[in-house]
TrEMBL record:
<dbReference type="GO" id="GO:0008483">
    <property type="term" value="F:transaminase activity"/>
</dbReference>
<keyword id="KW-0677">Repeat</keyword>
<comment type="function">
    <text>Catalyzes the first step in hexosamine metabolism, converting fructose-6P into glucosamine-6P using glutamine as a nitrogen source.</text>
</comment>
<protein>
    <recommendedName>
        <fullName>Glutamine--fructose-6-phosphate aminotransferase [isomerizing]</fullName>
        <ecNumber>2.6.1.16</ecNumber>
    </recommendedName>
</protein>
<feature type="domain" description="SIS">
    <location>
        <begin position="42"/>
        <end position="181"/>
    </location>
</feature>
<comment type="subunit">
    <text>Homodimer.</text>
</comment>
<feature type="active site" description="For Fru-6P isomerization activity">
    <location>
        <position position="364"/>
    </location>
</feature>
<keyword id="KW-0315">Glutamine amidotransferase</keyword>
<keyword id="KW-0808">Transferase</keyword>
<keyword id="KW-0963">Cytoplasm</keyword>
<feature type="domain" description="SIS">
    <location>
        <begin position="214"/>
        <end position="359"/>
    </location>
</feature>
<keyword id="KW-0032">Aminotransferase</keyword>
Length: 369
């Protein structure tokens, strides 16, 4: 049932192009608009929303961090993303005009469930983004947008994460569409480009052999750092989380701009540092900033592993290892940039002799608070 793969995780990584395509299926109509009829929250209610709060745990929380950037950009509605386990203990400000988005693969995560119960008690509307039909979180929400990743067996989340991102982009674009924003043209263009994303993920998967070889060569390292900015920051956190849970290595993700405020003290000779580089098109300021971050860490001896868009030549002189990803719109880049990090962690875990599908101390579904 592993379909010829050694591990479920490898199978699930390979299934990502299909998972992404399936999650888009039937949600974009012939005219290129979104039709999310299953989101049974009336358009009149969505038009009145004045704040979005996203709650989730672990990998789903990283999807939520990216969703915040997409929602605020395309809708101009203030949005915050919070760890579900922290949320209700701080007495959050919620009312009928708050839309809470609860993201969960399993639909059974107790922290997320308790957060959404708290939100509904305060009168907020809750939209679940979930991969498991009929599970508790969608049953207790006002509406649900299902991700169509299919069953995810490996404890480390991969295809569910990519489909959570797709679903979150759909929510952001849909909110933009029903409310009308100045980004109308961009929203139409991004909806079109989403249709090409499955093929882009496939392209990444075809070029992963050097990433596997690199991972094997780092099997005796103790620490790997991950840096990113904007959408690349949650991708860095996700890369670090995958490495912790699978390879049991010390792995940390940082916002690259924070380096000089502390973490740069960690840089020493031969320390592997993965850097997620934003597109040089689009927000080029961000790109230039991260190129100087790469120079800074390399000058201090770091071994730089650079994930950059095809055609980005500015990073070449500073990359000890260069991992190419297809060009995408800025906000969609996590869909392609995360994939090499999944492969990297999986291969490192294998090289270190760890059980890939069942990491120690972890469970697939965390039904205790
Ligand atoms: C990491 C991982 C966990 C889950 C988290 C939330 O690979 O799988 O961090 O993402 O436990 O689980 P769900 O999405 O089921 O609520």
């Amino acid at each position: 049932e592993k379909g010829g793969y050694d591990y479920f995780m490898l199978k699930e990584i390979a299934e990502q192009p299909k998972a992404v395509a399936d999650t888009l299926l039937g949600r974009i109509d012939a005219s290129g608009s979104l039709s999310l009829d299953e989101v049974r929250i009336p358009v009149s209610v969505l038009r009145e929303v004045d704040k979005v709060v996203i709650v989730a745990c672990g990998t789903a929380y990283h999807a939520g961090m990216i969703a915040k950037l997409a929602i605020e950009h395309w809708t101009r509605i203030p949005c915050e993303t919070e760890l579900a386990s922290e949320f209700r203990y701080r007495d959050p400000i919620l009312d009928q005009r708050t839309l809470v988005v609860a993201i969960s693969q399993s639909g059974e995560t107790m922290d997320t469930l308790m957060a959404l119960r708290h939100a509904r008690e305060q009168g907020a509307k809750v939209l679940a983004v979930c991969n498991t039909n009929g599970s508790t979180i969608p049953r207790e929400s006002d509406a649900v947008l299902y991700t169509h990743a299919g069953p995810e067996v490996a404890v480390a989340s991969t295809k569910a994460f990519l489909t959570q991102l797709v679903a979150c982009y759909l929510v952001a674009l849909y909110l933009g569409q029903v409310r009308g924003t100045k980004w109308g043209d961009e929203i139409e263009a991004v909806i079109r480009e989403l249709s090409d994303i499955a093929a882009a993920v496939d392209t990444v998967l075809e070029t992963m052999e050097p990433v596997r070889a690199l991972a094997r060569s780092l099997a005796d390292k103790n620490t790997v750092l991950f840096l990113g900015r904007h959408v690349g920051y949650p991708v860095a956190l996700e890369g670090a989380l995958k490495l912790k849970e699978l390879a049991y290595m010390h792995a940390e993700g940082f916002a690259a701009g924070e380096l000089k405020h502390g973490p740069i003290a960690l840089i020493e000779k031969d320390l592997p540092v993965v850097v997620v580089v934003p597109s040089p098109r689009g927000r080029s300021v961000l790109h230039d900033k991260i190129v100087s971050n790469i120079q800074e860490i390399r000058a201090r001896g770091a071994r730089t592993i650079v994930i950059a868009e095809e055609g980005d030549e500015a990073v070449v002189p500073y990359a000890d290892h260069l991992i190419r990803i297809p060009a995408t719109p800025t906000l969609l880049q996590p869909l392609v940039a995360t994939v090499p990090l999944q492969v990297f962690a999986c291969e490192l875990a294998t090289a270190r002799g760890n059980e890939v599908d069942q990491p120690r101390n972890l469970a697939k579904s965390v039904t205790v608070e």
